[in-house]
Specification:
The structure is a single chain. The chain has 8 helices and 17 strands. It is α+β, with helices and mostly antiparallel strands. The chain has a 6-stranded mixed beta sheet with strand order 1-2-6-3-7-15. Helices cover 27% and strands 26% of the residues. A hairpin with a 6-residue loop joins strand 1 (13-14) and strand 2.
Length: 351
């Protein structure tokens, strides 16, 4: 039976996790049934864009705050599930739509996805994470390692003789500058990954920095933050040891504090959910989409580490994500919605 998209609003039975998790039980006579998670983010950030709460359609594109990431994705999941529901087909399983917050903090929040998983509310057979972009099916993502470096100096007024003569005072920012220079040359050991051909771990330092509190005072302290994009096989200890070994070459005192570690995630191209999604996309668009890892991280690793096969992204064609001119392509939005609907039907296999 062909899937036709309804233009009316969707309705779902709510669970006790109000506004976060929507439960779609399909008509079934089987006691043992599959469960599929469709998953998107609800933005917890408000940015001061021009007309940021509005939206405009221009040349087939929807422009506006979060248009692609991730309002379009949520709409695609909702309408795909509703389209399947309206067919009244008998499907063996349940689809759960989880629209969560706090992913942008580093894909490691105790809220949102992790909370739902720990409460046993997302214990399914597969998951589809609604990261936008239609150029590939993301079979995993690079991981994240974040850290803070602090240096300590001695504050003194820049007009005093003791500073002029080098008797007192020590500039913590100068020490940090030396650490920055050595980390610019730092390389991290890794093994090439077939999921990320030609990619490498990327160390960015500093991404944020602060030192001093007055233009006429020698800075007593400085802190800077760094970010590493991690490939499969890299461990938290290996990364820390490589970075601190480089920092030691500057021969200045520092304090190193690890902040976040999210492992790289990988899913086999042979996984059933991958084959189903790939076929659905080809049926709708006429194109075979490549499979590869995603550069940015997402919450997909939380499913994968629990043994739940999770696609870490396929969605609406888009551009300007997180920017003032973010847009989602409306033709692509319909195609993605249809592909999601076909995925649901195929995954649960009509009786």
């Amino acid at each position: 039976m062909p899937i036709r998209l309804a233009a009316n609003a969707a309705w779902f039975e709510r669970t006790t996790i109000e506004r976060a998790l929507y439960h779609c039980p399909w008509r079934t006579s089987r006691q043992s049934a599959h469960s599929l998670h469709a998953y998107g983010y609800r933005s917890s950030q408000r940015r001061l864009y021009p007309q940021s709460l509005g939206a405009e359609v221009e040349q087939g594109r929807l422009y506006g705050l979060g248009a692609a990431y991730t309002k379009a994705q949520i709409a695609a999941f909702v309408y795909a599930a509703r389209a399947v529901q309206l067919t009244e087909m008998r499907l063996a399983g349940t689809t759960k739509l989880a629209f969560v917050v706090d992913e942008e903090t580093g894909a490691c929040s105790p809220y949102g996805t992790r909370y739902l998983l720990e409460q046993g509310l997302l214990d399914g057979d597969a998951a589809l994470v609604g990261e936008p972009g239609d150029e590939k099916i993301a079979l995993g993502h690079r991981g994240i390692y974040r850290f803070r470096v602090q240096t300590q100096g001695e504050a003194i007024h820049t007009g005093l003789r003791a500073w002029e003569e080098g008797i007192r005072g020590h500039n913590a920012v100068n020490d940090m500058a030396r650490l920055i220079l050595v980390l610019e040359q730092c390389t991290l050991p890794f093994l090439p990954s077939p999921l990320f051909p030609g990619r490498k771990p990327v160390l960015s330092f500093p991404t944020m920095i602060q030192g001093g509190n007055s233009v006429n005072m020698v800075p007593a302290g400085c802190e800077a933050f760094g970010d590493v994009r991690v490939l499969p096989g890299m461990t938290e200890d290996d990364i820390r040891q490589a970075i601190t070994a480089c920092l030691d070459q500057a021969h200045v005192p520092y304090k190193f504090t690890p902040l976040v570690f999210v492992p790289a995630a990988a899913l086999s191209e042979e996984a059933e959910i991958v084959q189903i999604v790939s076929s659905a996309i080809e049926e709708i668009t006429g194109k075979r989409v490549r499979c590869a890892g995603a550069g940015p991280a997402c919450d997909g690793w939380m499913f994968l580490e629990r043994g739940i096969p999770a696609i870490c992204g396929y969605g609406v064609a888009c551009g300007g994500v997180h920017g003032a001119d973010e847009w989602a392509d409306l033709v692509s939005l319909r195609q993605v919605t249809e592909a999601y609907a076909r995925t649901i039907v195929t995954f649960f296999r009509m009786e």
